[in-house]
Design brief:
globular, mainly beta, 270 residues
């Protein structure tokens, strides 16, 4: 892409960026190779392709999701990136000779990320919608409810050298929240640690994720994960993990139920 074709975009960025931030004429890239914002590894709603087995029951949890950057601008000591994330989640019940699908949920996010030395920040919009499917209504004898969230999110990530990992904090304001329209906030904290190399491209790690949810009177969803990750190149990873998750269900149709489960999962992310 030539300099003249990106000149209008550069001009807009220079108008909205803080004073003193320099922007070079060749610093805008469309469809960059990888996202600058990391996944929250223990978060059950992080975008990835995964399949997990709940060890206490016949249930499985599947996800097809991805995160990809759309455009990136760089300057003197900083990088800004706008992207898109999308995931579909499903809950399966495996009985002899049959697989029953009980819920299907989906989530989309449009984030704007900023990287400066020692810190990553995110602002974004998101939507999540949750549904029983036919098998779920018949087996669970439930009436489907409208469980929908439209939200604005703000997050921070920082590397923690002492833990050989990172920590993050995020707040989401659900300006449209059904069925509890007056419960707006979700607060989230977590991180990963260890990241101990056990071979070429293989590491051992631990991770934790904690959510506080106003819609369940500030009840929590807690996830504790240990796993091994294979990362042959930057931006691509495969993980095998064991997660203990306790508290309120992550997704909408079952949002007011509590449980403690153990999940053995396999996932790919890029």
């Amino acid at each position: 892409m030539g300099r003249h074709s990106i000149a209008p975009v550069i001009l807009v960025l220079e108008l909205i960026l803080p004073a003193g931030v320099a922007l070079a004429q060749d610093s805008l890239t469309f469809l960059p190779a990888q996202s600058i914002y990391p996944r929250y590894r223990a978060d059950a709603l992080a975008p990835q392709v995964s399949l997990g087995k709940i060890t206490e029951t016949r249930e499985w949890i599947g996800e097809i999701g991805t995160a990809f950057p759309v455009a990136e601008a760089t300057g003197d000591g900083w990088t800004a990136q706008v992207g898109a994330e999308a995931s579909t989640f499903t809950r399966l019940i495996k009985t002899p000779g049959h697989i029953t699908v009980s819920t299907i949920d989906y989530r989309i996010d449009i984030p704007l990320d900023l990287r400066v030395p020692f810190l990553l920040a995110r602002l974004g919009y998101g939507h999540i919608s949750n549904h029983y499917v036919d098998d779920g209504i018949e087996l669970l004898h439930q009436h489907s409810i409208s469980a929908v969230k439209d939200f604005l999110e703000a997050g921070l990530v920082r590397d923690i050298g002492l833990l050989h990992g990172k920590t993050y904090a995020q707040a989401s304001y659900c300006y449209h929240n059904e069925p509890l329209r007056d419960r707006h906030w979700i607060l989230q904290w977590g991180g990963d640690f260890g990241n101990y190399a056990i071979g070429p491209s293989w590491i051992l790690y631990g991770a934790v994720d904690l959510k506080l949810k106003q819609e369940v009177n500030w009840g929590t969803t807690q996830s504790y994960q240990a796993g091994v990750m294979y990362a042959p190149r930057e931006g691509v990873a495969m993980r095998i993990a064991y997660t203990v998750r306790t508290g309120f269900e992550e997704r909408g149709q079952l949002f007011d139920r509590t449980a403690t489960t153990s999940v053995l999962s396999w996932s790919i992310e890029r």
